[in-house]
Request: fold
Amino acid sequence: RRSNSINQYEDDVQMRASATHDAGYMLMFAALQPIPKDIILHLDKQDGTAIHSSSDVNADFDTQRLCDNRTYMDWQMLLWQAGTVAERYLTGREVLDAADDYLRWLHCASTYIVKLFWDDLKIVKQQQSLQIRFFLRGDPALRELSVLKLKQCALLQTFFGLNNGVLRDLSAAAQEKRTLRRDDLLPFFARVRFPEGFPRPDLTVLTED
Reply:
């Protein structure tokens, strides 16, 4: 019986962590204008492991144009940290997908830093790949990445502080229903408040010809 109680407790902790991680991740989509049509939050019913299925914004829009836009890149970097920060904010732990999320963030942030320093790098086409790799391994890039990550974590902490109730309610709804589709998510999104300086990409403007 004690073993069953421990297993049930661990399952409950895992489910709460999954729901909180995904709730934090999903609240980021409230910042997009318009909100994507096919967005869904789904928790696997067998073990509580979170399955992220957002809307793949890049599948519906011009990937290159979005990734060349600073506001969208700012938002995307926050997206890849949101689940971990939300989990840490509500549970004091970060046990789910932290490494995978960090790698996604690092890929996006590295591209962002390179674009930021593009003129200073004076990259020529033939040497582009080599010089980018050299730059990203150097101290300047590491310092910039570290500062960038700290600033974004602070912004997300402020964001979840403003939306504490929404985050908790969405996490609870995810645990109860396991699957939340766009129509289920919109009432939560309508309650979201954004701190000053929070990126809100207008996808309609960004994808106009």
